[in-house]
C-alpha cells in the first residue's frame, strides 16, 4: 500500500465557516474517518446502514464534512486569534497523531494548513505565502469570499498550488521563487526581439494601447521578455506567478470536472496510489518520472499529487487552441498594483507567448487598493487617521470612471468624501472634555460604521471597474466561431461606450493573426528552443576552470533570475545503473541537493547568511552576498531572523534583509542581492572551495542573460 499524502489548506470566514479548502483525497478521507469514529452523522454518508439509521432517527443532527471541519478547527483558530497580538504568536502546533497544523491570516480570514511529517516546514510556509500571492494576483483588492471569486479564478488558484506542490521538490526555480531564462545564442535572441517588436506594433494598431509586455516562454522558462519603453517592468514575484499561471494551465480542467457537494469553494484531488501514474511533467528532469505502485515515505520533501490522463492533449489539439484573455493584477516599478489583460497564445505543446496590456485606468486601481487596505486595517484595529485617508479619497474620486459609477447607482460623486467628513467630525467631537465615556463609545461605533461603509463602497467600485465591466470569465467560455458578435470591453471604456464600438476590442482575430505571424518568424527555432529548455546550461563551461565542482545554483534577486546547470550522466553510467536496478546518479544527487537547499533556507530564516555541510561524497556551500550597484561588497553585520520563509511571494525576505542592515539605502536602486550554492567533491580542500566560490561569483555575474 502506498504512503498516504496528507495535506490541506482551509480558509475560514468571519463566522468560522470554511469558505475554501484545498485538500488531498487522503486527508479528506482521514478527516472523514476521524469524524465517523467520534460518532458524527455526515450528510454525504450514503451507505445503506447509515441510511436506515437516519430514517429511524429523523431528529438526530447530521453535519456535512465542512461543518465538522469548522467545528473542530475553529477551536484551534480561536486559540491562535488570542495570541495574534503578542510579540510571538502561535504559528504552528503538532497534534498527537504527528500532524502539523500551521496558522496564518488572509486579511480578516483565518488560514489553517494541515500537513504530515513528510512535508518540510519551509515548503508548507512557502505554499501558504503562494496562496496569498495568488489571491492578490487574481482578485486584486476584493475580499476572498465566495461571491467575489468566479469558479474560473478558484480553478486557476488551485491549479497553480497543485503544480507548485507537484514540482517544488525537483524544480529549483519553484523552490527559490525565481524565473529561469534560456541562455540562447544571439541569432535566436535577435529573431525573438524582432518578433516582439513586430507584434507590438500589431497590438498597438488593434487595441490602441501604448503600454504592453510580451513574454515568450517554453515550459517553465522565459525565452525572451519585451516591454514597451513607457511600460514599467512587473516585479519579480509577479513574473514568477505569470510563468506559474501559464505552466499550470493544463491542470485547471481537473478542478472544473469536480462536483462540489457543498457551497464551499472546495477542491479535492484524486490520488490513485495503487496504480502506475505519471507525475506532472517537470522541466528540471529529462523525462517524465513514473510513480511506482509501492511508494516509500520521503522525508524533507513533498509527496506528489497525481495528474489523471484526462488533462493531456495532443499537440495538434493544443496548437489549435487560442486561450481567452484573463485579468491579472501586477505590481510594477511605479504602481503598487495595476490591472493587466493577459492574452495567452500557444504556439506548440511547450512554447507560448504571453501578452500583457496595462489598463488605462490603472492609476485608480492603485488608489483604490491603498484606500481599501487602510480602511480594512482601521476597522479591524479600531483606528482612524483623517490625514492619511483624505488624500487617498481625493485621488479615488478624481477618476472619471469612479464618478460615473457612483452616479449610475444613485450616489453623489463625492460620497466617499462626505462619509469621511462625517467620521472626522465625530472623531473631533469625541475628544471634547464634556463628553462622557458612553457618548464616546457611541460616537466610536458611528465612526466604525462610516469606515465600514467607505470600505464597502470602495470594494464595489473596484469590482465594477475591473471585474463586472470586463466580463473576462464570460469571454473565456464563448464560442470562437461567434466571437465576432461579442462586445469586449477593455482599458476602462464604459459599457455604454462599448455599445457604439462593437468589435473594436475583439481579440479573437487579433490573437489568430498574431499566432500566424509569430509562427512564421520563429517556427524554424521551436525544436531548438524546446531541447534547450531541457538542458539550459551544463557544467561543461566551467569544468576546466573549477575542478571538483559538481553543481551550482546562482540566484540574482534583483532581476529575479536563477541559473543552474542540468545534471548529466554519461551513457555508460546510465547502463550500469539500469542493470543494477538502482537510482540514477542524477536522482541521488538531486535529492542530496534538495535536502541541502532546504537546510539553507531554514538557516537563512534563522539569521545565517552562510552555511556549509559535508557528507561522505560532497561538500555543500551556501552564501548570500549583498553589494552596491557599483560592485562594492556590503557587510552583513547582524543576525536577521524572520518567521516568514526566504522568498519573494507575499513577503520579500531579501528586501527586508537589506533594509534591516542598510535602511538608509534604497533597495531597488542601490543594493544588489545574490545567492550562490555550490557542490564540490569531498576530496577538494576547503580553501580551494572558497577560492573557487570567489571566482565563480565573478564569472556568473559577468554572464550575459
UniProtKB/TrEMBL annotation:
InterPro entries: HPS1. One of its GO terms (cellular component) is BLOC-3 complex. One of its GO terms (molecular function) is guanyl-nucleotide exchange factor activity. This is Uncharacterized protein. It comes from Adineta steineri.
Amino acid at each position: 500500500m502506498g504512503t498516504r499524502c496528507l495535506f490541506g489548506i482551509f480558509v475560514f470566514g468571519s463566522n468560522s465557516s470554511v469558505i475554501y479548502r484545498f485538500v488531498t483525497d487522503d486527508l479528506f478521507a482521514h478527516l472523514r474517518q476521524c469524524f465517523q469514529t467520534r460518532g458524527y452523522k455526515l450528510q454525504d454518508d450514503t451507505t445503506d446502514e447509515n441510511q436506515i439509521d437516519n430514517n429511524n432517527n429523523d431528529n438526530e443532527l447530521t453535519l456535512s464534512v465542512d461543518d465538522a471541519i469548522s467545528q473542530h478547527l475553529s477551536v484551534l483558530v480561536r486559540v491562535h486569534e488570542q495570541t495574534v497580538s503578542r510579540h510571538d504568536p502561535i504559528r504552528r502546533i503538532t497534534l498527537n497523531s504527528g500532524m502539523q497544523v500551521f496558522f496564518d491570516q488572509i486579511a480578516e480570514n483565518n488560514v489553517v494548513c494541515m500537513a504530515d511529517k513528510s512535508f518540510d516546514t519551509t515548503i508548507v510556509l512557502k505554499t501558504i505565502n503562494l496562496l496569498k500571492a495568488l489571491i492578490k494576483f487574481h482578485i486584486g483588492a476584493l475580499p476572498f469570499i465566495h461571491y467575489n471569486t468566479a469558479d474560473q479564478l478558484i480553478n486557476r488558484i488551485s491549479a497553480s498550488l497543485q503544480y507548485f506542490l507537484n514540482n517544488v521538490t525537483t524544480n529549483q526555480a519553484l523552490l527559490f521563487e525565481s524565473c529561469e531564462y534560456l541562455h540562447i545564442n544571439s541569432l535566436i535572441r535577435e529573431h525573438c526581439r524582432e518578433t516582439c517588436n513586430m507584434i507590438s506594433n500589431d497590438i498597438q494598431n488593434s487595441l490602441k494601447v501604448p503600454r504592453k509586455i510580451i513574454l515568450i516562454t517554453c515550459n517553465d522558462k522565459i525565452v525572451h521578455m519585451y516591454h514597451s519603453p513607457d511600460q514599467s517592468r512587473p516585479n519579480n514575484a509577479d513574473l514568477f506567478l505569470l510563468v506559474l499561471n501559464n505552466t499550470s494551465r493544463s491542470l485547471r480542467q481537473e478542478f472544473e470536472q469536480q462536483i462540489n457537494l457543498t457551497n464551499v469553494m472546495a477542491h479535492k484531488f484524486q490520488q490513485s496510489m495503487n496504480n502506475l501514474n505519471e507525475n506532472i511533467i517537470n522541466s528540471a528532469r529529462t523525462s517524465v518520472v513514473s510513480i511506482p505502485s509501492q511508494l516509500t515515505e520521503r522525508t524533507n520533501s513533498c509527496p506528489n499529487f497525481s495528474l489523471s490522463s484526462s488533462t493531456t492533449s495532443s499537440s495538434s489539439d493544443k496548437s489549435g487552441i487560442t486561450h481567452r484573455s484573463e485579468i491579472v493584477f501586477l505590481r510594477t516599478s511605479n504602481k503598487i498594483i495595476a490591472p493587466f489583460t493577459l492574452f495567452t497564445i500557444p504556439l506548440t505543446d511547450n512554447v507560448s507567448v504571453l501578452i500583457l496590456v496595462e489598463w488605462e485606468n490603472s492609476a485608480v486601481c492603485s488608489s483604490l487598493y491603498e484606500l481599501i487596505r487602510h480602511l480594512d486595517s482601521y476597522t479591524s484595529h479600531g483606528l482612524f487617521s483623517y490625514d492619511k485617508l483624505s488624500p487617498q479619497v481625493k485621488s479615488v474620486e478624481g477618476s472619471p470612471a469612479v464618478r460615473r459609477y457612483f452616479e449610475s447607482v444613485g450616489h453623489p460623486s463625492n460620497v466617499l468624501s462626505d462619509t469621511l467628513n462625517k467620521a472626522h467630525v465625530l472623531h473631533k467631537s469625541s475628544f471634547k472634555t464634556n463628553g462622557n465615556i458612553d457618548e464616546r463609545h457611541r460616537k466610536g461605533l458611528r465612526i466604525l460604521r462610516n469606515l465600514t461603509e467607505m470600505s464597502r463602497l470602495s470594494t464595489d467600485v473596484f469590482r465594477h471597474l475591473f471585474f463586472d465591466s470586463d466580463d473576462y470569465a464570460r469571454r473565456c467560455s464563448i464560442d470562437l466561431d461567434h466571437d465576432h458578435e461579442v462586445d469586449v470591453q477593455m482599458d476602462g471604456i464604459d459599457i455604454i461606450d462599448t455599445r457604439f464600438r462593437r468589435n473594436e476590442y475583439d481579440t479573437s482575430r487579433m490573437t489568430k493573426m498574431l499566432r500566424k505571424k509569430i509562427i512564421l518568424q520563429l517556427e524554424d527555432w521551436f525544436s531548438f528552443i524546446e531541447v534547450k529548455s531541457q538542458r539550459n546550461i551544463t557544467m561543461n563551461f566551467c569544468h576546466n576552470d573549477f575542478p571538483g565542482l559538481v553543481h551550482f545554483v546562482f540566484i540574482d534577486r534583483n532581476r529575479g533570475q536563477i541559473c543552474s546547470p542540468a545534471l548529466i550522466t554519461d551513457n555508460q553510467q546510465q547502463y550500469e545503473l539500469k542493470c543494477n536496478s538502482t537510482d540514477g546518479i542524477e536522482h541521488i544527487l538531486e535529492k542530496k541537493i534538495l535536502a541541502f537547499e532546504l537546510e539553507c533556507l531554514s538557516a537563512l530564516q534563522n539569521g545565517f547568511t552562510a552555511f556549509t555541510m559535508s557528507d561522505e561524497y560532497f561538500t555543500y556551500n551556501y552564501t548570500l552576498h549583498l553589494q552596491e550597484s557599483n560592485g562594492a561588497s556590503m557587510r552583513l553585520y547582524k543576525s536577521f531572523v524572520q518567521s516568514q520563509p526566504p522568498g519573494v511571494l507575499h513577503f520579500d525576505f531579501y528586501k527586508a534583509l537589506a533594509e534591516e542592515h542598510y535602511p538608509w539605502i534604497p533597495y531597488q536602486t542601490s543594493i544588489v542581492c545574490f545567492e550562490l550554492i555550490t557542490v564540490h567533491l569531498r576530496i577538494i580542500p576547503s580553501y580551494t572551495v572558497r577560492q573557487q566560490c570567489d571566482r565563480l561569483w565573478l564569472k556568473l555575474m559577468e554572464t550575459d542573460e
